[in-house]
Each structure stands twice: as structure tokens, then as C-alpha cells.
Amino acid sequence: MQDSNKLLEQANRQLASSPNTPTAAGPTNSEPLPDRDAVIDALNQMFAEFELVYHNQYNKAFSNAEKLSYAKKIWFSNLRHISPERIIAATHRAIRESEFLPTVKGILKYCEPDLRELGLPDSHSAYLEACRAPQPKAEYSWSHPAVYHAGRACDWFFLAGNTEHAAYPVFKRHYEDICQRVINGETLSLPAQIALPETISKPLSPDEQRQRMQQLRDELDI
After folding, report:
1. Nearest-CA neighbor of 122 among 168, 184, 189?
2. Position 211 pLDDT exceeds 60
3. pLDDT attached to residue 8
């Protein structure tokens, strides 16, 4: 049986020279694709690290050069639109968080930005912030607008009137849905605060009311 380096070398040559590599999955809009060779290098590093970390699972999944080559083509077709830096970051994240050899779907998930990268607190911290924020909620200095929108989606009275055991799962579901929208590129905003008037009017006195009425009569000639 060929050693691991020879298998990788053979698969790399086939991948780089293949003219019929499928188009990357997912919309790419008008953005240019990352450099092909850089993506292939990132995938090679990913496979090499997976072999070291998930040794037995890796050898079972890619038991010969043909399987390895075909797997690399599939992974390339689905990760072609992702930057090499993001692929490597996803690889390291998968190694930290997954006990099992990741699938393509798993790596695509790991390629999504981490909540911390987007300034989003974890769901429990967000829940506590939503519960503790004073009224008026729209004027509070939120760590991220997603926390406000999740709290509003739950209903502030619901959060205030229920225990954490009952309220947190509901908040968490709304918050994760809103976080996914942020990950997908949506920009959230807080309600616009109504500015206080520069001057506050006061009721007219009876004499002032009579003078104002007489002024209107004079202007209308009645």
C-alpha cells in the first residue's frame, strides 16, 4: 500500500489537472473566486491535518488513492468559493469542536463566522442582558441589536414574568434565528429614538387664551 504522502501527491495532481471540476456550490454573485491553487493548497492542508487528528476514521473513509482523489474533487467543488484563510480557520475549528471526521456540510458550517467575530454574545449572556435591560428597552445600549430583537420577539413581559427555565429556551430559539440572519449578511438596527423638543409648551392662561382668540378674530375680521 502506498504511503500517505504518495496518495496525497497523486490525488493533488488529478485535482489540479482536472478540467471538469464541478462549479462551486452556492451563489457567488459577481465576486471573483479565490485563487484556485490557493484553495487546493488549503484543502491539502485540511486533509493532512484531518489525517493526523482523525487517523482511524480518515483511513477508513479514504482507504485508497481513488477514494481520496474523488473526495478531494467533491470537497473542492463545494469549497471553491471560500477563501483559503476561511477554509484553514474552519479546519482548526472542526478539530477543536468535533470528535468525528467532518463532512462537507460540517466544514461549510464551520466556515461561517463565529458569533464572537460578529460581536454577538452567546445565547445565555444575551438572555441575561435582555432580562436585565431597563425600560425603555429601545434606548438601552445593547451589546448587539440582535439581543434587542430577540427580546422583542419573545415579548418583554414574557421574559419578565417567567423563570429562566421557561423563558430561556424560547429566547434562545429566537436569538439563534436572528444570529443566523446576521451571519447571512443582514444588518440589524435599533428603533430610532424620538428626540425631545427643544422647548416644552405649557397651557395658556385664561387671559392668554382670550387674547389669542381676539387675535384670531381680528385676523379673520369676524
Report:
1. 168
2. yes
3. 47
